[in-house]
Specification:
By secondary structure, the protein is of the alpha+beta class. The protein folds into 2 domains: 8-37; 51-131, TonB (TolA/TonB C-terminal domain), CATH 3.30.2420. The protein has helices spanning 12-33, 62-66, 96-106, and strands at residues 51-54, 71-79, 85-92, 110-112, 114-116, 119-121, 123-131.
């Protein structure tokens, strides 16, 4: 059985014209998405995480060690536009005395600020400060 015999007859000129338009449309689409057609950014900037430049270790007084007070204090804070620490919040702490020591030390940390589109931005960070006996 000849399947093509059942199809309506289409003039060859029409087929060639439609084929030409289809190929032109494909060429335009390919030209629009090639990397060379996309203008390059004058200053390519990628997001950059904050970089620690100054770390201050907390004091661990002998009196607390003798009382066997130890554990991990988890703090959340914002690295400000100037790289300082702001808005410290305690997420977890085994003792209020360790919280104060960890907070005082963390407040003194300094960062190279995070960047987005080549501009400093505020970002949240989480920090774990450990107090362990025999360290």
């Amino acid at each position: 059985m000849d399947y093509f015999a059942k199809l309506p007859s289409i003039p060859a000129r029409l087929i060639l014209a439609l084929l030409g338009m289809l190929l032109s449309a494909i060429a335009v689409c390919v030209q629009e998405v090639t990397p060379s057609a996309v203008p390059a950014s004058p200053t390519p900037c990628r997001p950059v995480s904050p970089v620690l430049v100054k770390r201050v270790e907390p004091e661990y007084p002998g009196a607390l060690q003798k009382q066997r007070v130890q554990g991990v204090v988890v703090l959340e804070a914002v690295v400000a536009l100037d790289g300082s620490i702001a808005d410290i919040r305690v997420l977890q702490s085994p003792a209020e005395s360790l919280t104060k020591l960890a907070r005082d030390a963390f407040q003194q940390w300094r960062y190279k600020p995070a960047l987005l589109d080549c501009k400093p931005v505020r970002v949240y960070i989480t920090n774990r400060i450990s107090f362990a006996l025999g360290k």
